[in-house]
Amino acid sequence: xxxxxxxxxxxxxxxxxxxxxxxxxxxxxxxxxxxxxxxxxxxxxxxxxxxxxxxxxxxxxxxxxxxxxxxxxxxxxxxxxxxxxxxxxxxxxxxxxxxxxxxxxxxxxxxxxxxxxxxxxxxxxxxxxxxxxxxxxxxxxxxxxxxxxxxxxxxxxxxxxxxxxx
Length: 166
Known about the structure:
Layout: E1 8-15, E2 39-47, E3 50-58, E4 65-66, E5 78-79, H1 85-100, E6 103-107, H2 116-129, E7 134-138, H3 141-144, H4 153-165
Parallel strand pairs: 6-7
Antiparallel strand pairs: 1-2, 2-3, 4-5
């Protein structure tokens, strides 16, 4: 109940059976475009007979890369150099568009350090795909929100506002 108005709010998460695994052991995509650790989360609001739904997905960055565990706290990501990333990448987003429609990618990885190549490759691949159904926003979450500066999330929210309304 908010301001005396009662409604039902349902939250459902569905984990994909393709490329399921634990962190660091399963990363990237397979040749069919299935992203590792893919989860679909749906919010459903029911109020006075009306219903609204919002679906959000998350998964590993959809190209061929790995992050093999070692004795370091955070192993360095390795982008595969021996495969055509675009085939699996395209399959991934073709499937996403068929299932969910227009896509808004929000990339929260670091823009420096060991994650920098992941962000740069992801950005480059989305741009080279040149699909009007896919928009990409990179937000360096660790830099912007360091020291618990959660108010800085407003920067991201402002970047996404128009598409969120749409």
